[in-house]
Write a structure and sequence with these properties.
By secondary structure, the chain is of the alpha+beta class. It folds into two domains: 101 residues, Orthogonal Bundle (Hypothetical protein yqbg); 83 residues. It contains four helices and ten strands, in the order E-H-H-E-E-E-E-E-E-E-H-E-E-H. The strands form three sheets. The chain has a five-stranded antiparallel sheet, with no helix packed on it. Strands 3-7-6 form a three-stranded antiparallel sheet, with no helix packed on it.
Length: 199
Amino acid sequence: MKTAIKTAPVLKPVSLEEVKDHLRITLGNTDEDDYLQRLITAGTNYAQLFLRRRLITQTWYYYPDDFPRGDVIVMPYGKLQSAGFTLKYTGTDAVVHTMSSDEYIIDIIQDPGRVVLDYGESWPTESLYPSNPIVIEFACGYGLTSASIPEEIKQAILLSISDLYENREAVFIGQGFTLTKTGAIDQLLWPYRIHTVIS
């Protein structure tokens, strides 16, 4: 699956204040703010990779290699949004074409979301450009702020942050090194994980 981010979110799923409250750090203490921000990024990245999702609304490009044989393109990252959606393709003549939104339906109810051909429509049949011929621009995520994200996901991120904060090096458990709270973190995230593998 080839993707590239267009517009990253400004906010994180958990705030610095929430992290300090979780870690019982005085809000006025700013000594470790930079470090805590890095932990927020690490905790967020772990959650997103495990979930195969993006949490705060953001805009991406998706590059399928070809149009599907069936009527459906399954979109990456879940919680597809219809605003700003475009589907473009390039033929062997290097001319870029934009498919009309009348030709397909954006299914944001199913998760992960889908692009479904409308009745009587078909994908373009012309030969495609040899490199990244299809570009789909789309937005995804639970919402513009963390208020839209399920509490279990935010709690998992906070647990991940506290684990990294309390154990600043790998912890030896049994035969290997691991984060001590990984089981609890993954249990909180599991119900929201996307199990569809998108190629």
